[in-house]
Write a structure and sequence with these properties.
This protein has about 220 residues and is an alpha/beta fold. The chain has ten helices and five strands; from the N terminus they run ααβαααβααβαβαβα. A five-stranded parallel sheet has the order 2-1-3-4-5, sandwiched between helices.
């Protein structure tokens, strides 16, 4: 089976397990393609949400920055470079470090965010980080069950202005984030906790697809 077929297989498995997500299958595929292009070009993912969606942001980073299903062992060449620096420490590093897909959760910097919120405009705390971290090949993923969270919208506008791609992950109701996003995955629920219950398998699928592509 070719790598591309293995990647798409993850999406097929998702729909088999969660048939209601068939309505967003194409949006998930397009999101994968945007993220794959970003990582192939040396980009990174910036992800943000509020409350449960902040927890989802951290969860996504955890799946991308270390092994998810695969061990992602370093190459022999990477191991050699580590041991060249320091043989004893480098050996431990070579045996334990894993390949990573760069991702940053924007909720996780309390000193920065509280300083900015105190000194400036609280609703722009994510936008400030997109402004500082973001580059042309990067992707901003905004998670909002309503799709109308103001701090996510400000971050999305900032990302678009920096020529980044913007992905939305929302519920099914029409929302402002979808108007800004290159792709918006609107899972077919309207109740907050039910939306969040479908967000998890969606982003797990995306992480599995990316891992298969880059570490399969």
């Amino acid at each position: 089976m070719e790598t591309n077929e293995k990647v798409i297989k993850q999406l097929d498995i998702l729909i088999e397990r969660y048939p209601q997500l068939v309505v967003v299958k194409e949006e998930i595929r397009k999101t994968y393609e945007i993220m794959e292009q970003s990582y192939s070009s040396g980009g990174k993912l910036l992800v943000a949400g509020n409350g449960g969606s902040a927890a989802d942001s951290e969860h996504i980073v955890g799946e991308l920055m270390k092994g998810f299903k695969k061990p992602r062992r370093l190459s022999a060449k990477q191991g050699e470079k580590l041991t060249e620096v320091n043989e004893e420490l480098g050996k431990v590093l070579a045996e334990n470090l894993q390949g990573a897909l760069p991702a940053i959760a924007l909720d996780g910097h309390p000193a920065l965010t509280t300083a900015y919120m105190n000194d400036c405009e609280p609703l722009l705390c994510f936008a400030q980080q997109v402004n500082g971290y973001g580059n042309e090949n990067d992707v901003f993923l905004g998670i909002s069950t309503s799709g109308n969270s103001q701090n996510i919208l400000y971050a999305a506008v900032t990302a678009k202005a920096k020529d980044m791609k913007v992905i939305g992950l929302t519920g099914s109701k029409r929302n402002k984030l979808e108007e800004l996003a290159d792709v918006c995955i609107k899972v077919p629920e309207t109740e907050t906790y039910m939306i969040q219950e479908l967000h998890l398998p969606v982003y797990h699928c995306l992480c599995l697809m990316l891992e298969e592509r880059f570490f399969g």
